[in-house]
Amino acid sequence: MNRREFVKGTLAVAGAAAMSHFAFATEGGKKMKSIVIYFSHTGENYSVGNITVGNTAKVAKEIAAQTGATTWEIKEKNHYPTQYTPCIEVAKKELQAKARPEFIGEAPDLSDIDTIYLGYPNWWADAPMIVYSFLDKAKIDGKTILPFCTHEGSGLGSTAKKLAAAYPKAKVELKGLALYGHVAQKEPDAVKSAVANWLKQLGK
Ligand SMILES: Cc1cc2nc3c(=O)[nH]c(=O)nc-3n(C[C@H](O)[C@H](O)[C@H](O)COP(=O)(O)O)c2cc1C
């Protein structure tokens, strides 16, 4: 799969949407918080060689740093192949089967959370199936979900739309932040300013 294939048939959407949110909004007198939840793959990567911290993880950490939100990483029980080619094959099969691979542990308690920054790599123009595994189990009804992704040409594509369709009781923002994976991995200043701009547009 080359970069052109990534781009084909998908929309390269980067940007953000205006949503009202505050790190500690209140709901019925209760302090509501935000959290950054993300999945990110380590090992052999499409464009940046072998990595020990995933591209999406880098963005997730920056969002947490700038918002003060806590982070929660979705970790797969059965590790996706470290090598790139087997990994894309497994991911494709999971997508075709609408698989729900298991993640480690229990979904965190989201009762005092109103906003979830949800991060994932673009895998075959969708979020990895393990992200769906997580969302199936987490109590996300009524929560605002602000998606961000890393990719190598497809941008956010229709990933947010697919999440919105799958979880109609959550408020999934259709536009989100999309960053090239190699930029996320290698250009911390670019990540910093992309995140800052996004948060500014969101009114954070
Ligand atoms: C299984 C798999 C499928 C991918 N599919 C796409 C794709 O459809 N479009 C795209 O732009 N990039 C695609 N990529 C590239 C990743 O989105 C990109 O390298 C991303 O930054 C990886 O993030 P991570 O390190 O957080 O996992 C794919 C990568 C993998 C491993």
Give your account of this protein's structure.
With 204 residues, the chain is α/β, with parallel strands linked by helices. The chain has a single domain, classed as 3-Layer(aba) Sandwich (Rossmann fold). The protein is 34% helix and 22% strand. It has seven helices and nine strands, in the order αββββαβαβαβαββαα. The strands form two sheets. Strands 1, 2, 5, 6, 7, 8 and 9 form a seven-stranded mixed sheet that branches. Strands 3-4 form a two-stranded antiparallel ribbon. Helix 2 packs across helix 7. The radius of gyration is 16 Å and the shape is globular. Bound molecules: flavin mononucleotide. Flavin mononucleotide (FMN) binds next to helix 2, helix 3 and strand 7.
What is this entry, summarized?
The chain has 204 residues and is of the alpha/beta class. It has seven helices and nine strands, in the order αββββαβαβαβαββαα. Helix 2 (55-67) packs across helix 7.
| CATH architecture call | 3-Layer(aba) Sandwich
Query: Roughly how much helix do the residues carry, as a percent range?
Result: 25-40%
Q: What is the number of independent domains?
A: 1
Structural class: alpha/beta
Average pLDDT, all residues:
89
Computed CA radius of gyration, to the nearest angstrom:
16 Å
Largest β sheet strand count, sense and barrel closure: 7 strands, mixed
Layout of secondary structure:
Elements: H1 3-7, E1 25-27, E2 30-38, E3 43-45, E4 49-51, H2 55-67, E5 70-73, H3 84-97, E6 113-121, H4 129-137, E7 144-151, H5 159-166, E8 171-172, E9 177-180, H6 181-186, H7 188-202
Parallel strand pairs: 2-5, 2-6, 6-7, 7-8, 7-9
Antiparallel strand pairs: 1-2, 3-4
Bound molecules: flavin mononucleotide.
Flavin mononucleotide binds at residues 6, 40-41, 45-46, 54-57, 87-88, 91, 121-125, 150-154, 181.
